[in-house]
Amino acid sequence: MSAKSVVLLLGATGFTGRLIAKYLYTHPDSASFTLALGARSKDRLDAVVSDLGLGSDVQLHVVDVGRPEQIRAAVSSATVVINTVGPFWSWGTSIVEACVSHGVHYVDLTGETEYIKRIVTRSHYAATKTGAIIVPSCGFDSVPADITAYLSSKTLRDAAGGPVDIDTSVSAYVVKGGFSGGTIATVVQAIEKIPADERRIARIDYSLSPARGIPSPRSPLVYRMFLPDTGKTLVGGFWFMRNTNRSLVQRTWGLLETAAALDTAQVHYGPAFKYDEFIVTAGPVRAVLMTLGLAIGLGAFLITPIRWLLKKLLPQSGEGPTEAAQKAGFMKVTNLTTSVASPARPAPIQVKTVMTGTGDPGYSLTAVLISEAALSLVLAAPGALPPLARGGGVLTPATAMGDVLVERLVATGRVTVESKVVVARPLEGKKTV
Question: Could you give the angle at the alpha carbon of 393 between the alpha carbons of 388 and 395, nearest 5°?
Fold first, then answer.
């Protein structure tokens, strides 16, 4: 019998790390893998084991992510690494490089496009040589965005009876949740430590994609999405995760387009694909106010004295929502994807995919998302993962896990997914968002 897979969780003593550790230890599949926890302090690791009631079968590793030799030693015995140690720009690159060197799979929680751009540049090719599957953004950033667009494209193909090009794919978010000190640290670091040129490059359309697509439309002040099956129109404003999620979905698009150029049998979204998303509000006035409020809030972080004060007043690293607040949280993501009209198919097909999740999206639900992503990579049946995953590289949730991740998430009972055709109407009658 082969040895069990080892799931190594780095940052196990942090706020989100503890949630993931508890989730994995009590997982129905826990007998199929060995859980290993890594952090800088042995005392804090022992406290996590005691506080969460973990058993002696859990492996403990003292790992200072600022010391490459400790990272390599811990990673060398793992099958997959779950990295929660942020900000990732500062601490993630050496962990990815160790995983690539040892052929170990990797998932993380990053929403830092600059960091993803760096590991794509440095590690994608090397990972295809060692077979390491490297998947950033496996939490609320950016599983719902990537997977709903992926499922809508799949439903479109099923409805059309074959390949079909996508025109637009737009997601509307309804969320209830809090934020932690780690989130604040990431925002501050982006301003104080990431070079301005790196931030500028990351904001460029398709910055993470191996191919260049059609330019994205400008973000409107008020978004509107008409849902043909209900006759309702969702209204909303700028969603602060939009740029991060869009870049990740664009990487999925680019990876699939590049693969399809070499093998026409490969599934892809088509050259006309454009992705966008927004946060749902009670009406257009609130949409405008939310957009302006977000702009003012982010602008405040750019002013050094205000940023210093906010760092003192806002949650510190290791702090986050209470257990009661986490249980009260939820997400609902509605994606509407429309096919390209053509002489052969003059009536574009529209698909609505809805993903819901219970628990604070950024924390308790994220613990579910990233854990199931990691387990998808190590427990999937041979050949079950998407074709791109079999070659390794810096991938995305959709291209690395696809249906395997969807099935695992639904099986938890915490996530529901529905994808269906909602309308087929002539091009001239099509609404735009």
Answer: 65
Distance (Å, whole) CA 251 – CA 209: 4
Please, is 151 exposed, middle or buried when counting C-beta atoms within 10 Å of its C-beta (0-12, 13-18, 19+)? buried
- Do residues 257 and 268 make contact, with C-beta atoms less than 8 angstroms apart? yes
The whole-model pTM stands at 0.93
Q: What is the dihedral of CA 71, 73, 74, 77, to 10 degrees?
A: 140
As to burial, measured by CB atoms within 10 angstroms (0-12 exposed, 13-18 middle, 19+ buried), residue 16 is buried
Q: Where are the beta strands (DSSP E) in 40-159?
A: 59-62, 80-83, 105-108, 133-135
User: How far is residue 148's CA from residue 170's CA, in Å, rounded to a whole number?
Assistant: 10
Please give the single-letter amino acid code of residue 264.
T
Q: Compute the CA torsion angle 318, 40, 94, 130 (nearest 10 deg).
A: -110
Which of these, 415, 329, 313, 330, lies nearest to 371 by C-alpha position?
415
Q: What is the 3-state secondary structure (H, E, C) of 327-351?
A: HHCEEEEEEEEEECCCCCCCCCEEE
Q: Which residues pair with 206 in a beta bridge?
A: none
User: What distance in Å separates the CA atoms of residue 351 and residue 156, rounded to the nearest whole number?
Assistant: 7
pLDDT over 90 at 161, yes or no: no
Q: What is the pLDDT of residues 48-86, one digit of tens each?
A: 999 999 999 999 999 999 999 999 999 999 999 999 998
Q: Cα-Cα-Cα-Cα dihedral of 93, 239, 418, 365, to 10°?
A: 50
Dihedral angle, C-alpha 137, 139, 145, 147, nearest 10 °? 90
The closest of 111, 178, 195 to 363, measured between CA atoms, is 178
Distance between CA atoms of residues 229 and 77, nearest Å: 51
CB-based burial of residue 120 (10 Å sphere; 0-12 exposed, 13-18 middle, 19+ buried)? buried
Q: Which residues pair with 333 in a beta bridge?
A: 173, 355
